[in-house]
Write a structure and sequence with these properties.
By secondary structure, the protein is of the alpha/beta class. Helices cover 47% and strands 8% of the residues. The N terminus is likely disordered.
Length: 468
């Protein structure tokens, strides 16, 4: 299939990569905390940067809270130390105790990837701007300041704070030529947000309308009356790479869930020792299949948006970066245009947005259940209560910037997500409780010293909450 060809038609593909990690800098290491960020840097962001530097037409989103951590003094040095010591030592221990030659080969492959990441990160860190500057040359979209579920916020002031702090951070770091693209956290959308998004300067945002529109309607942007273009992500396409039975479940790929004694991955999904060559061959086959399917999907025209978390490629799906690179090569061979989303939107006339769109997200199901359900009711309720009290204090002439930053930290979607999905329930509850307690202290004693949130949301402003 890799040699297939076809006449270039009016349809095209946009690959949108949403890069995000919760604010873990200084809040724990293993099994929860900074190690998440180090793994994403080593296995996802650095391989992605290689593709972007070679001109890959990918639409990159960086959340402000991820950028906060990448520019925090000492953060990259801690990541380099983790790769240089912890990863080297633990691989050696696993290799020394492995009896199977195939497992040894898989561990040597894994160790080599971390060694490459350490060398590459050290090289980039020596340049002006470091890793954030290197990624910043390619970033197109920003997001809300700390990845809050915007439809769940209690006040317009809270939404304005998240939007303005995030956009201000993006412009301060990457320049004023921001094109107006904003990734709504978790693709959570409600029609009442349109006006607030428009006031903030947002021109386009992705939405998941899988259960709302017919499948063919996902291939065209929607024009709202008061706000930005709504860009439907294409669930039909996304399920190929992010569904339960998608490509990463293939028997030849490296198993994400099976660990050695020191938590390295040395087996394939079929239980055999991982074979890197076999995994690479699978990635090439699936890239060819993917491009052929998307070509068929847009044969009659339209814009197909493959939107996923960046961390899928490498961190979660080991062969994901190979697959991405192969998709771009296959698209060129098979005649499928791949474009930056902002550029593609100029070529596709929007349809009017339906007037009765419901509240949606890309959670399970496509509503806000993941972040507001009985399992996480306390987390959601306390965040809303904290917002109301912070806004009230600000409008009464009280509060301070520390309270604002703790509010932003508390509003992160990640704490409820970790609880409701069971991925790290104790950590999610602890972080939400920590920021709630710190916010209470800030409201009780304004201007007190705060050593905890460090570089989080430096562009958050109390003045926004005081606006009528």
């Amino acid at each position: 299939m890799s040699g297939a060809s076809g006449r270039r038609g009016p349809g095209e593909l946009a690959i949108v990569l949403h890069s995000h990690q919760p604010y873990v800098a200084g809040f724990g290491t293993w099994p929860f905390g900074e190690e998440w960020l180090w793994e994403s840097i080593a296995t996802s962001y650095l391989p992605l940067l290689e593709l972007l530097d070679r001109g890959a037409p990918l639409t990159l989103s960086l959340t402000p809270v991820l950028c906060d951590q990448l520019e925090e003094p000492g953060a990259i040095e801690r990541c380099r130390e983790f790769l240089r010591t912890t990863r080297v030592v633990t691989h050696r221990r696993d290799i020394a105790s492995a009896a199977d030659a195939g497992v040894v080969a898989a561990l040597e492959h894994s160790a080599a990837r971390y060694e490459w990441a350490h060398a590459r990160l050290s090289e980039i860190a020596s340049r002006p701007g470091g890793l954030l500057g290197a990624l910043g040359r390619h970033v197109a979209w920003t997001s809300a300041a700390t990845h809050a579920i915007l439809p769940l916020l209690a006040t317009d002031a809270g939404v304005r704070l998240q939007l303005r702090a995030g956009i201000a951070a993006h412009r301060a770091r990457f320049g004023d030529d921001w094109g107006g693209g904003l990734w709504a956290p978790e693709c959570a959308y409600a029609p009442w947000l349109d006006e607030l998004l428009g006031q903030a300067g947002v021109r386009s945002t992705c939405v998941d309308l899988t259960d709302v529109l017919e499948a063919t309607q996902h291939l065209r942007p929607l024009r709202t009356l008061a706000g930005p273009l709504l860009v439907p992500i294409d669930r039909v396409t996304i399920e190929l790479v992010w569904g339960r039975a998608g490509y990463p479940s293939d028997p030849r790929y490296r198993n994400y869930h099976a660990f050695t004694e020191y938590r390295h991955r040395a087996w394939s999904n079929d239980g055999r020792p991982y074979d890197a060559a076999r995994g690479a061959a699978a990635a090439a086959e699936h890239a060819a299949d993917f491009v052929a399917r998307v070509r068929e999907r847009v044969a009659g025209g339209g814009l197909c948006v493959l939107a996923t978390d960046t961390e899928l490629y490498g961190d979660w799906w080991h062969e994901g970066p190979l697959w991405l690179e192969a998709v771009l090569g296959e698209a060129a061979q098979q005649g499928l245009p791949v474009a930056h989303l902002d550029e593609a939107l100029t070529r596709h006339a929007p349809a009017p947005a339906p007037p009765d769109l419901p509240v949606t997200s890309w959670g399970t199901p496509r509503d806000l259940t993941t972040w507001s359900a009985p399992t996480v009711a306390a987390v959601a309720w306390r965040a809303r209560d904290a917002e109301l009290r912070t806004v009230a204090a600000a409008r009464a002439g009280g509060g301070d910037e520390r309270a604002v930053r703790e509010l932003l930290a508390l509003q992160s979607s990640d704490w409820a997500f970790l609880v409701s999905t069971g991925l790290a329930e104790p950590y999610g509850r602890e972080r939400a409780a920590h920021h709630r307690t710190a916010l209470d202290a800030a409201l009780a004693a304004p201007e007190a010293h705060d050593p905890h949130v460090r570089n989080l949301a430096p562009w958050g402003s109390l003045a926004v909450l005081r606006e009528p």
